[in-house]
Amino acid sequence: MHPIVHTIVVGIISYLVLIAIIRLSGKRTLSKWNAFDFVVTIALGSTLSTALVSPKVSLAQSITAFLVIVVMQFVITFSSVRSRAVKNLIKSQPTLLLFQGQFRQEAMAQERVVEAEVRAAIRENGIADVERVHAVVLETDGTFSVIPDAGGSDSALQGVAGLSSRRV
Asked: Where is the chain membrane-spanning (predicted)?
């Protein structure tokens, strides 16, 4: 088969199979990225790329590779829900960057976040006064959660690194 025809045929079939596999694997495969999700996505992209341009890799091998990657992703995420050790291996812990209007410089330095980024996240949430923010958390997917100062409990902050050390 001519290399261009191979790329077209294998590309169309591989693309459709990859979409079907991802749809069947569930929403978790398409969630916001953490390091683990990033690796899975890169592996799927690399496999698709190899399938498209390498006539030495058969369509069956490509589909098998897609299935292996998605099944491993499922097994690891399934295990992480049931095992704290596995969860800690693949997911980082959210980090408290600002608490009760006070920046947590050590946590920000460790996470390589500057005040300007935290202030931008606060502004994006329509808050003009840093002192009116109860907490800013760097989530496991790299996004910022801004919790306005509404009084009440810290129950939403359970499991966030740095909260217990800041309690009075």
From this structure: 6-24, 36-53, 59-81
Count of helices and strands (H, E) across the chain: 6, 4
Cα within 13 Å of Cα(88), Cβ side: 5
Amino acid making up residue 153: S
Please give the tally of structural domains in the chain. Answer: 2
For 131-156, the pLDDT digits (tens) are: 989 999 998 878 899 999 876 777 78
**Whether 7 and 83 share a structural domain:** yes
pTM of the model: 0.62
pLDDT digits (tens, 9 = 90+) for 88-103: 777 778 899 999 989 9
CA 66 to CA 14: how far, in whole Å? Answer: 9
Q: Distance between CA atoms of 134 and 131, rounded to whole angstroms? A: 8
- Element (DSSP H or E) covering residue 38: helix 35-53
Q: What CATH number should be reported for the domain holding residue 102?
A: 3.30.240.20
Residues 92, 33: contact at Cβ < 8 Å?
no
Q: Under 8 Å CB-to-CB from 105, ≥6 apart: which residues?
A: none
As given in the structure block, the two tokens for residue 67 are 């299935």
Cα–Cα separations (whole angstroms), residue 58 to 53, 135, 145: 11, 52, 45
Q: Which domain holds residue 71?
A: 3-90
Last residue of a domain, one of 90, 120, 149: 90
